[in-house]
# Entry
Amino acid sequence: MIADRSIVVQDGIRLASPLAIIVATMLFFGGHNQPGGGFAGGLVLGAVVALRSATGLSVPLHPVRMMALGGVIIGGVALGPLVVGDVVLDQYIWETTLPVLGKVKAGTALIFDAGVVLVVLGLIVAMLDALAQGGEHRTTLRLDAEGDREADQ
Amino acid sequence: MSVLVGLAVIVPLLAAMVSLGVRRHAFLRDTVVLGSLVGVTVMSAVLLIQVEANGSLVVRVGGWLPQLGIVLVADMFAVLVLSVAMVTITLVEAFSIGQRRSTAGADPTVAAPMLMVLTAGVALSVLTGDLFTLFVAFELMLVASYVLLTHKGQAGQVRSGMTYVVINLFASTLFLFGVAFVYSATGTVNLALLVERIPELQTEVRWGIGLWFLVVFGTKAAMFPLFSWLPDSYPTAPTTITAVFAGLLTKIGVYVMIRFHTLMSMDDLGTVILVIAGFTMIVGVLGALAQDDMKRILSFHIVSQIGYMLMGLGLFSVAGVAGAIIFVVHQIPVKTVLFLVGAMVETDRRSSALSKLGGLVSSRPWLAVAFALPALSLAGLPPFSGFVAKLALIDAGVEAGTVAIVVVGLVGSALTLLSMVKIWAGVFWGPQNAPAFHAPESEEWAPRSATARGWSTMSLATGAAVALTLAIALFAGPLWDMSERAATELLDGEVYVTDVLGSER
# Structure
């Protein structure tokens, strides 16, 4: 652990984490018409999570469930338009004027992008978990398979 | 009805994600996966009937024009291959639910979601109407296949998985370059627009594009001389996984090759493709003859059979391409069922090496029948589906006056029969070798045989797959009509262009 050697690194990353979330949020909302979007936002969050895990700080739990949820959101947004009789992946855009923010434009693509963030972040955390477990991973997998067999029978 | 075209791609992806979420809960996961596969199968069958009756269905994803966005095109060729592919995947998944109860099976917590991703990739590569989406679909299929091949982490799988990943990534890179070349030459990657623009290019550029994509799709399809990765990697995977790969991955390679090269009128390449086809047939089958393991013999056969499909394509006539199409349709279930029988033999005797097997015909007579029928079909004996498909190809070859490839094809068939006899003699005939009990290397990896219920699920799935191959022979008439129509549409190109671009031209 780097953290055992350097309190500067650990505190630095702890303080930087909220800032990274701000950057990620900016990228996420900017993505519609400018560089950025769910994938870029997710990667920024993922980079911070990777640093946090390297210094022993807390990281999000249940990465696989996060990926699955993100994927279901994406699939739902893709299939949603079919329910009202439009084509797959069609999108709807709303525009309103809010106090403080002014004119706001939002589309279903935003929900889609939120799904992308979850998938990217979940994937990175899942990879970190797998790397951290190293050799133990195979035994965990096998134990799971055993559990399944018992559940089946 | 066109709703189904989009659903055929999105439903497997959604099911992959849901089954990933519930991967530890065996019953829920299996229900989601098998349920969605059955759903997609039904959808593709409905599409087949619909397209047969009313012509192609085209979906503009997100409502964008074909010039700007992605189109999904369900024409005759696409729905024909899609339906067979989906039935086959469904049967394999049913089989693997049965096999799970023995250690020979794939780990379902990983394999089930990944199989769905692979299914989505297959559906998308069959239905897509532009080159870039095709690239994405291939990647989807390949990324899933990397995981499926290596997820058990055994030494042999990782070693051959490395070759598999490197070669496929290299081919994908070439694919991406190819897409860029096509775009810079024509200004579009939409297949329908390319049908109009590619013939206007200079001959040299057209040859370049044609040969480039021949190499790209040929690597995925395992044609000579780009096949060496296949017999090395396929036999190491869990057998149900190999069954899906054998039935689908290389055939999708051939599928896109047929689609691209016929639509783009690459007739000039006919001779090149025919020569490659001849070598693929013979080298593949000779490789098979040299092997002494059931899975390895069958893996080399995948290569050999690819040669026949290329032969049909190389003729560039309606009869030839229709022959290639019906050959693809017949190969998908036949190849899969042979590997499923291989998986059952392996579960029963814990080995697939010919020297350790024997006498199965007396202990498992039905298994012998389930092997014999598709094996004879693979060799091309009447009255099975292989005969129909090979007859069509030979007929087309004679008609086109290319005697050399016809002779090579017939020799290849005879050798195929010989290697099937080799499996038959080694596995099913002879004295009944007692299952060789090796002391398991560690307690953890001790083999576990299938339970009675697991075995009957496996038998049922295999039986259904055999029935499917027989049904193809039985419905050879209507299938031939559909293949011929698909071939005419592909070679003409005009039908495809009008379907996709419609009135905006």
Q: What stands out?
A: Chain B touches chain A at residues 3, 6-7, 9-10, 13-14, 16-18, 20-27, 59-63, 100-101, 107-110, 153, 444, 451 (CB under 8 Å). The first strand of chain B starts at residue 57 and ends at 60. Residues 57 and 74 of chain B are 5 Å apart (CA to CA). Residues 3-433+455-504 of chain B form one domain.
